[in-house]
Predict the structure.
Amino acid sequence: MHDTDAIRRGHPIADVAVASGLELRQTGGRLTAVCPFHGDGRPSLVIYPASQSYYCFGCGAGGDVIDFMSRLHRVDFREAVALLAGSQVPTMPAGAPHPPNVAVPEVDRMKAAPIIETAAAFYEEAVWSRPEVLDYLASRGIHEGTVRRFRLGFGIPGLVAELRDRNLDIETAHQLGLLDGDRECFAGRTIIPELVDGRATWLTGRRLTDREPRYLNLRFPKPLLGLASAKGEAVVVTEGPFDWLTAVEWGFWAVALLGTRVPGKVAQSLERFEDVYLVLDPDEAGREATKELHERLGDRAVPVALPPGVSDLNGLGLRPDGRSIFARCILQAGHEARAARQRAA
C-alpha cells in the first residue's frame, strides 16, 4: 500500500507536468499550459501551486497530481499512484496522440447512471440542513425556488455509505471522480447537477470560497448545462454555472458552456433555437468563444453586451435592478441583430 498523502507531497504537480512534457508559463501565482486532455487551441489548463491542483477551463478536467497522472496515462487511481511511487515519472512518448477524452478509464454508463443520481439526491437533501449554504446561494442571487427546481445540493461526508447501502459500484464512483482513495471529492462544495427528465446525469461542485480551483466537475462527458430543460424558441448562452443559474432565476431559458471551449456538437445542439443570445464573459476568452459561436450559428446568434464594469451575468444578478438591466440588454441586442440582417438583405 502506498501513502497517497506522502506521494502528493513528494510530487509537486508542476514538476510532474513538466516531466510529462508540458510547457508551463507563469501567470501571477498560477501556471498555464496547453491542455493534454483535449484538442486545446490555446493554453486553457491552469496549475495552482498553492493548492497543488489543476483545472482546465476548456474541457473541465481537474484534480490533484494523482488525478493528472490518471488522466494523462489513462490508468485508474491505483495505477496512477504506483506510477508516481516509482523512481521516475514516466513521460509521454514523443509524438504520441493526446488522450481523446477526459474520462480515464472509460466509465460504464449503465453503472454510472444510478451512482450520479444517488450522489445528487444525497447532496440535494443535505443542502436544506445547511443554512450557511442557502445564505451563500442567496448572496449570489439564487433563491430557494431555483434551488428546489434545479435540485442544487451541498457535498457532505457519507456518500460512500449511501452508495454501499444501495449496492452501487464503488470502483465506478472512483472512476467518476466522486471518490479519491478515502476522500469524498465533492465534500464542502455547492452541487449543481445537469437534469434530464428530472434525473441527475452529471454534476459540478463549487467551493464556497474563491480558493482555486473553484469548480470540480464529474469525470464524465461535460454537457451543455441546462439544455434538456430549455424549451423555448430563444435561449441565453452563458459561460459558467452561476451565470446560468442567474438566467433561469430570472425566468429565461438558458444553457451554460461550462467554459469557453465550443465543440461542434455544442453549436449543433443550439441550432434548434431560433434566437441564441450569447452572454459570455467580456474577457478575451469570452469574446473569442462569442465570435466562434456567431460564425457557426450565423444569423440566429445574437451577441449581448453586458454593461461596462460587469464581469459576468451572475455579477449583474447581484444588482437590485439586474434583471431589468439584462432585459434591456437583450432587447437592444435583438434590435441591433435585426437591423444588421435587414442591411445585409
